[in-house]
Design a protein that fits this description.
By secondary structure, the protein is an alpha/beta fold. The protein folds into 2 domains: 117 residues, Rossmann fold (3-Layer(aba) Sandwich); 173 residues, Hnrnp arginine n-methyltransferase1 (Distorted Sandwich), CATH 2.70.160. It is built from 9 helices and 15 strands. Strands 6, 7, 8, 10, 11 and 12 form a 6-stranded antiparallel β-sheet that branches. It has a 5-stranded parallel β-sheet with strand order 3-2-1-4-5, with helices on both faces. The protein has a 4-stranded antiparallel β-sheet with strand order 9-13-14-15, with no helix packed on it. Helix 3 packs parallel to helix 5. The longest helix has 12 residues. It is globular. The protein binds S-adenosylmethionine. The site of S-adenosylmethionine has 20 residues, from helix 2, helix 5 and strand 2. Pfam families: Methyltransf_25 (PF13649), PRMT_C (PF22528). GO terms for molecular function: histone methyltransferase activity; protein-arginine omega-N asymmetric methyltransferase activity. It catalyses: L-arginyl-[protein] + S-adenosyl-L-methionine = N(omega)-methyl-L-arginyl-[protein] + S-adenosyl-L-homocysteine + H(+). Its EC number is 2.1.1.319. It is an enzyme of class 2 (transferase).
C-alpha cells in the first residue's frame, strides 16, 4: 500500500483514501457493526479476563483500537496497538476519550518496520481475516509478529481458522452475473464473460442453494502455521445431498478462540448469521448434473499473486468420481474496489 501518512487525517481526499482505504471511518463502521465479528472478539477476551490480567498484549492492525480497548478493559497491564493507516490518529483520540491513555500505546506504521516499546508480549490479538479467509494476505503480518514478538507459550487470539468448500445450485444468479455478457442489448460481449467467470464473487448465498456436504480444505493453527503453508493444494470430495445441478463452488471460513477456557467461535458460512465477509462463489464454466450420494472430487490450489501478494491465484480442478477428465478453472481474487467497500452501497 502506498501510504499517505504524511497527509493529516482531516485533510485526506479521495485519492488519499484510495491509497489508504482503512483511513476512512466507513470501512471501520462496517467492521464494528458486524456484531458476529466484533462481538466474538469481545466475548473471547471478556469471558477469559483471567488470561489478560496483568499481561502484555500486541494488537496487530489495531484500526480504531476496539480490540486494544477490550484487552485493556479485561485487565491487560500494557497493550500496544500497531496500524499503518491514518485511522490510528482517530484511535489515539478514542483511547484517550475512553480513559485508556496509560494502558494502551499506539504505534503508527507497518508492523514489519516499526520499533515497539517492548520486545516480548504474552498475547497477540488481531483481526486479519479477508474474503476467502486469505485475501489481502494480512495473515503474513500476524505470523511475522508471532515470530518476532510472542513469548514462548504465548497466546494468539484467535488461534484457529478453517476454510470450507461446498457446491451450489445458482442458475438465476449465474444468468445475471455471468451469462448476462452473452447478450447485452443484442450485442455479443462474451469476451467479458470469461473474465467475469474467473473472478470469484463475494456475496451471500442461501443455505437452500447448497447441494453437497461441505468439505474442510484448510486448517490454519496460528501458533504453528508457516508463511509457506499459505500456498497450498488441497484435495476435496463433495457428496451430493440431493439430485440437482451444480453451477458454482462456495467457500467460507470458521474462526475459533481455542486457547481459552470458555471457547468462542464463529462461522461465515451460509448456515450462519450474516457477516461482512459473506461467502465466496466460484462459478464453473458448465453445469454439472449430480444425483444424491454421487461424489464430486477435485483439488483447490491457492497462492498469493506473484505481482501483488495481496491478491490470490486460486485454481479448482474437479470431476464426478465416475468421470475420467477433470475440468480446471483458474480464478483471480482481485477485489478492485477498496477492501470491504465491495457491495457496500457506497459505490
Ligand atoms: C481488518 S482491520 C481490523 C481493525 C481493528 N483491529 C478492528 O478489529 O476493528 C485491519 C487493520 O490492519 C491494518 N494493517 C494491515 N496490514 C498492516 C501492517 N502490515 N502493519 C500495520 N497495520 C496493518 C489496516 O490498516 C487495518 O486498519
Amino acid at each position: 500500500m502506498d501510504l499517505t501518512n504524511d497527509v493529516p487525517s482531516d485533510s485526506m481526499t479521495s485519492r488519499d483514501y484510495y491509497a489508504d482505504s482503512y483511513a476512512h471511518f466507513g470501512i471501520h463502521e462496517e467492521m464494528l457493526k458486524d456484531n458476529v465479528r466484533t462481538g466474538s472478539y469481545r466475548s473471547a477476551i471478556e469471558r477469559n479476563g483471567h488470561l489478560f490480567k496483568g499481561k502484555t498484549v500486541l494488537d496487530v492492525g489495531c484500526g480504531t483500537g476496539i480490540l486494544s480497548m477490550f484487552a485493556a478493559k479485561a485487565g491487560a497491564s500494557l497493550v500496544v496497538g500497531v496500524d499503518m493507516s491514518n485511522i490510528i490518529d482517530q484511535a489515539q483520540k478514542i483511547i484517550e476519550a475512553n480513559g485508556f491513555k496509560n494502558t494502551i500505546t499506539l504505534v503508527k506504521g507497518k508492523l514489519e518496520e516499526v520499533e515497539l516499546p517492548i520486545k516480548q508480549f504474552d498475547i497477540i490479538i488481531s483481526e486479519w481475516m479477508g474474503y476467502f479467509l486469505l485475501y489481502e494476505s494480512m495473515l503474513d503480518t500476524v505470523l511475522d509478529a508471532r515470530d518476532r514478538y510472542l513469548k514462548p507459550g504465548g497466546l494468539i487470539f484467535p488461534d484457529n481458522a478453517k476454510l470450507y468448500v461446498a457446491a451450489i445450485e445458482d442458475q438465476d444468479y449465474k444468468d445475471e452475473k455471468i451469462n448476462f455478457w452473452d447478450n447485452v442489448y443484442g450485442f455479443d460481449y462474451s469476451c467479458i464473460k470469461d473474465i467475469a467467470l474467473r473472478e470469484p464473487l463475494v456475496d451471500t448465498v442461501e443455505l437452500k442453494s447448497v447441494v453437497t456436504d461441505p468439505c474442510l480444505i484448510k486448517h490454519i493453527n496460528l501458533l504453528t502455521v508457516k508463511k509457506e503453508d499459505l500456498t497450498f493444494t488441497a484435495p476435496f470430495t463433495l457428496t451430493a445431498t440431493r439430485d440437482d445441478y451444480i453451477h458454482a463452488f462456495l467457500a467460507w471460513f470458521d474462526i475459533s478462540f481455542d486457547c481459552t477456557h470458555k471457547k468462542v467461535q464463529f462461522s461465515t458460512g451460509p448456515h450462519a448469521q450474516y457477516t461482512h465477509w459473506k461467502q465466496t462463489v466460484f462459478y464453473t464454466p458448465s453445469t454439472v448434473t449430480i444425483s444424491e450420494g454421487q461424489k464430486l472430487i477435485g483439488n483447490l490450489s491457492c497462492a498469493p499473486n506473484a505481482r501483488n501478494n495481496r491478491d490470490l491465484d486460486i485454481s479448482v480442478s474437479f470431476k464426478l468420481a465416475t468421470e475420467q477428465e477433470a475440468t480446471k478453472v483458474e480464478y483471480k481474487m482481485c477485489v478492485v474496489l477498496p477492501y470491504r467497500y465491495h457491495n457496500c452501497g457506497f459505490c
